[in-house]
Every structure is written in structure tokens, then in C-alpha cells.
What we know:
The model is unreliable at 1-11, 166-171 and 237-247 (pLDDT under 50). 32% of the residues are buried. The protein has a single domain, classed as Rhomboid-like fold (Up-down Bundle). A hairpin with a 5-residue loop joins β1 (160-165) and β2. By secondary structure, the protein is mainly alpha-helical. α9 (177-194) packs antiparallel against α10 (203-225). It has ten helices and two strands, in the order ααααααααββαα.
Amino acid sequence: MIKPSAVRAAVVRGPVVTYAVLATCGLVFLVSPVSGLNPSYGTGDALLAAQSTYFARWGVVPNELTAGDPGALLTPLTALFVHGNWLHLLGNMLFLHVFGVMAEERMGRIGFALFYLGAGYLALLAYAVAHAASDQTLVGASGAISAVLGAFLCLFPRARVTSLFPFLFFLPLRFPAAPVLVFWFVLQWLAVRAAPAGPGVAYLAHLVGFGLGFLYAWVRFRRTARVKRPKRPKPSVPAATEGENQP
Length: 247
């Protein structure tokens, strides 16, 4: 007979928070006017108007947030579950699935959930402060996922992960995570230098999120992230027994 405790343990096993975020983002996108699959929003101009209203309501508008609008204070959280198109959603969810599972296992479910939401909020807030006069809406989980990438690099610098490469027909390949993450960070930094302001991808939020994730993991887990070498046991000297080496 299977004990109820064993059933409960099996149900809650695994990266629950990571899968919950994946499912929530996917469901929110499917029912939104952005997916194009919800007929209640109409077509043509009506659909475009619904999309614009949707982004303005749930996304971050920097000049509203920095002006102290109470209704805008929660938008850095709601924006983490809103995406601009299918490619935006699938790209973010791929990165979260690849790197979030091990990060959640290391941090624990509650710790990972608070880390994900907190780092994502601060990353979007930093972007809004840096572009305080902008009225361009910002949506997406990229800031939070960038924090996961930074934490992963700190916690698992020698890890190898399996992912899909679009330019290789989405073949699943295994590659070392550290050089890829460092290269990704450099690309974000170069993108910020090339286009520090204006609409488009919020590269600054990526950089802030990555830095927050790495710093948090280094401060929180720096003592346990390193593998300690076992101490060699000291050679024991056997005690002489009575009559030993006696002539």
C-alpha cells in the first residue's frame, strides 16, 4: 500500500516554481490579445487597440512609475508575466527552463520564487529610473531570467547544459554554460553602449538583472558553492604492545 506522505512527496518533487512560472506565462499569453488566438478581441484595428491597452495596463511605463503613480508600482511584477509576441515568450521560457531548474534546486522553492520576483522587479525598476522620461511600455520576464543566468554562473561555473540552437535547426546540444553566459553578458553590454535609450529590447534591464543574480548568489551561497577538498587523514602510529621488539 502506498502511504499518503509518499504520494505528496512525489507530487511536489521537482522544480515547481520554474514550471509554475512557465505555465503562468504561457497561459497569460494565450488568453491575451497578443497571441491572436482569443477571438473576443476582434481583428484589425480593434485587435491593435486591445493590444495597446493591454500593454499599457500590465506593462511598465517609466514616466508613470518614476512619477510615483500608485497604480504603476505593481507593474514591474505584472510585466514579468507579459510578453510582446510568440518569439519573445518562447525565447524567455527556453532560457528559464534550461537554467532555472538547477538554480531553483540550489536555492529552494521559496527562496527561488522570492529571488525571481525581487530581482525581476528591481531590474525593470532600474530601467525605468534610467529612462524616467520615456513613455514606451516595457514587458517581459527578461530581467528576472537574466538574474537566474547570473546566479547560475556563480553557483555552477563548470556546469554543462542542454539547449536548442536555432541556427542548427533546433538540435538539442550540450555545451558549457560559463563561456556562453559570459558571451551573452558581453553582448548585452555592447548593445547598451550602442543604443542606450529608445524603444526596443531593454538591454539595461538584462545587465542589471544579471548583476543582481550573480551578486545575490555570491553573497548568499559563497561558502557552499565551492567544492571543498576532503582533508587527508593523518597517518596513525600503532601503539607498541607489551613484549614487542623484546630480545
